[in-house]
Amino acid sequence: MDSVFQKDGNRLVRQYDGEKLWIEPWGENSLRIRSTYLETIIEEDWALLPQEDIKTTIEIDEGQATIENGKIKAVVSAAASGKMTFYNQKGEILLEEYVRNRKNLKEFTSALKIDAREFKANLGGDFQLTYRFESNPKEKIYGMGQYQQPFLDLKNCTLELAHRNSQASVPFALSSLGYGLLWNNPAIGQVTFGKNITEWVAKSTKQLDFWVTAGDSPAEIEEAYAKATGTVPEMPEYGLGFWQCKLRYQTQDELLEVAREYKRRGLPIDVIVVDYFHWPMQGDWKFDRDYWPDPEAMVKELKEMGIELMVSIWPTVDKQSENYAEMLQKGYLTRTEKGIRITHDFLGNTVYFDTTHPGARDFVWQKAKKNYYDMGIKLFWLDEAEPEYNVYDFENYRYHIGSNAQVGNIYPAMFSKGFYDGMKEEGQENIVNLVRCAWAGSQRYGALVWSGDIDSSFESLRNQFNTGLNMGLAGIPWWTTDIGGFQGAYTEDPDFKECMIRWFQYGAFCPVFRLHGDREPHSEPLGTSGGGLCPSGAPNEVWSYGEEAYEIFKKYMLMRERLRPYIRELMHEAHEKGTPLMRPLFYDFPQDQKAWEIEDAYMFGPDLLVAPVLHQGQRRRKVYLPEGAQWTNANTGEVYQGGAVIECEAALDTIPLFLKDDAKLPIVN
C-alpha cells in the first residue's frame, strides 16, 4: 500500500480519507501547517508574508514522517489519527495534538472518539473547525491582543476570537515553553488555554492554518514572528512626544486656541486632534465648513507651531451621505444577511464601508486625500475600526471576500491598509495612523492601536496595564490608551484627579503619550445639523484638573521630552526587529523564574524598569528587581542588587523608575 506521505519540494504532504495536510518551513525555525477536507488548500497568506525557500529535512518512514527546520521539528503519525507533535532542538515537546480515539493502538487509546483536527460541516460548504492540543498546566501564555480583563498570563483563560470596542483579537500566543503560535485564520471563534486542554475554534472556515516557531528566548520568538508578519515603519518624530485630544473640539477656533495655550505655557506638544463629527454627514469624509471654515489656514498655523493635526475618520456611511448611492451601486458597503441594512446607529442610520473590497478602500482614501491629505494633514485616526456593530451578531454581516463569520477579524487590518497604501503611493514615508483595533499583520500598515472606550477608573487602568504588554507580545508594538480612560469621569472629582495623575505618569512610559477622554459634564451641541449635532465633553487639557495636577503633568511631559533619544532608539528597534517597547520583565530576563510571575511592573526598553501605581491611595509600593543586574532608583539614586523585592516611596507626584546597570538616561533633573 502506498504511503500516506509524500515530499513536495520542501513541503511534507499527508493525504488520508479526504484530508489534505501540508507542513512546510515558513521562516527560520518555523513551520506553517494547513489542513482541509475540501478539494484544495487555499493559497491565501492572511497575516503571513511570503517567505523564501529554506532547506528542510524531511524523512518518511513506515509509521511516521518528520519535517525539521532549524530548532523546530514536527512528527506526524501515519495512522488514521495523523497525530502531530512538535519538538525543539533539544527533543523537548513544545506542542502535542490532543487525540482521544482508537485509530492507532500503538498510541494512547481512548473510547472518547475525539480528534485533534475536527471539521464539522456547515451549510454552504465550509466547516466549523475545532483544533486541540494537549495542555501543560505549568505553561504560561502571553500575547493574543487586547482583552479587558486583569490577567497578563492567559493560561486558564478563554478568549473570544473577535473584535469589539476595546477588544482586539491578535491571535499570536507566546509560550513559556519556548514556542510562539499564530492562529492564521480571520474567522470569528474562540480559544481556551485550559488546564486540561488547549482548544482553538473557528466558527466558519475552509481550512486549518497556523504558524509555529521555536526559540531559546522570548525575544528570539518575537523576532521570528515579526519576520513572518512584518514590522512597523519607522515612527516619525512627532510620535515621540505629547498628543493632545479630547471628545471633542467643536470648532476650528476652539482647537487653535488650545494649541496656542500650550505654546504660551511653554509646554511640549507634537499632535492635536480633530475628533469625530467635524463632518457634515457620516460618509462625506470632509470638514463641515460651518464650524471648520478654513482648514488650510488651521493646518498652516499648527505647522508653524510645530504641531501635527490628526483627523478622525469613521468607516460609517449615512444613507443621506453624498457618497452613499455610488458606494451602494459599486458594492462598497457591508451587507446584512437578515433584517434592515443598518450596521451602526449613532446620529444617523449608517452602514460600514467594506474594507475588504480594494475598490472601497481606494474610494474612501481618495475622498480623504482630496479633503484632508491635500491640505497637509498626514495623520489619521481610524476610529470604529472593529467595526463596532450596534449588535455583535457576527454571523449577520457579509463582506466582499466572505461572510463576517469566516473573515471578519481582518476588517481593521484592511482599514489600516487602505490608508497606508494611499499614503505610500503619495510618497510618504514613516506612516502612522491611530486605529481602534488590529489583527495580526496590522503593524506593517502603520497601525498605532489604542484600547478603545474604556472606563475611567483604577480598575480599568490595571486592565490596560496587562493589555498593553500583551499587545506588544502579539506583535503590535505601537500601542496607547486614553490617559484617564474614556468615559465615566467628572473633571472636578478628587478621586478621578488622583486616577488621572497616576494614569498620566504611566502614559509617559507608553509607546505613544496621548491624552484623550469624554469628560463630564457635557456641553451642549452647537447646532441642529452636520457637525453641530454632536455635544462635547468637559475640558481635558493638562491645565483642566487644578494646579497640583498641572504641575505633575508638566513634570512628566518634560521628562518624556528628555527621553526622546532613548525612545527614538526603541522605535527603531521595533521597526528593525519587531521588539515591543514595553514588555514584561521576563522578556529581558528570561532566566529569572521570578520575573515570569511579575504582573505589576514592566521594562520600557532594555534600560528602564517602570513600576506604576495602580491603586487609589497608594503612596508606597513593592517592586521586584530582576536578578542579573544592578538597579538604581531614578528618583532617589539608591542602588540595589537584582533578585530582590524592595519597597519604595511613591508620592502622588512620583512613579517608581529604576535604571539597569550603568544606564545614563536623563529622567530626572
From TrEMBL:
<dbReference type="Pfam" id="PF01055">
    <property type="entry name" value="Glyco_hydro_31_2nd"/>
</dbReference>
<feature type="domain" description="Glycosyl hydrolase family 31 C-terminal">
    <location>
        <begin position="578"/>
        <end position="662"/>
    </location>
</feature>
<dbReference type="InterPro" id="IPR048395">
    <property type="entry name" value="Glyco_hydro_31_C"/>
</dbReference>
<feature type="domain" description="Glycoside hydrolase family 31 N-terminal">
    <location>
        <begin position="24"/>
        <end position="188"/>
    </location>
</feature>
<dbReference type="Pfam" id="PF13802">
    <property type="entry name" value="Gal_mutarotas_2"/>
</dbReference>
<dbReference type="InterPro" id="IPR000322">
    <property type="entry name" value="Glyco_hydro_31_TIM"/>
</dbReference>
<comment type="similarity">
    <text>Belongs to the glycosyl hydrolase 31 family.</text>
</comment>
<dbReference type="InterPro" id="IPR051816">
    <property type="entry name" value="Glycosyl_Hydrolase_31"/>
</dbReference>
<feature type="domain" description="Glycoside hydrolase family 31 TIM barrel">
    <location>
        <begin position="234"/>
        <end position="567"/>
    </location>
</feature>
<keyword id="KW-0378">Hydrolase</keyword>
<dbReference type="InterPro" id="IPR013780">
    <property type="entry name" value="Glyco_hydro_b"/>
</dbReference>
<dbReference type="InterPro" id="IPR025887">
    <property type="entry name" value="Glyco_hydro_31_N_dom"/>
</dbReference>
<keyword id="KW-0326">Glycosidase</keyword>
<dbReference type="Pfam" id="PF21365">
    <property type="entry name" value="Glyco_hydro_31_3rd"/>
</dbReference>
<dbReference type="InterPro" id="IPR017853">
    <property type="entry name" value="GH"/>
</dbReference>
<dbReference type="InterPro" id="IPR011013">
    <property type="entry name" value="Gal_mutarotase_sf_dom"/>
</dbReference>
<protein>
    <submittedName>
        <fullName>TIM-barrel domain-containing protein</fullName>
    </submittedName>
</protein>
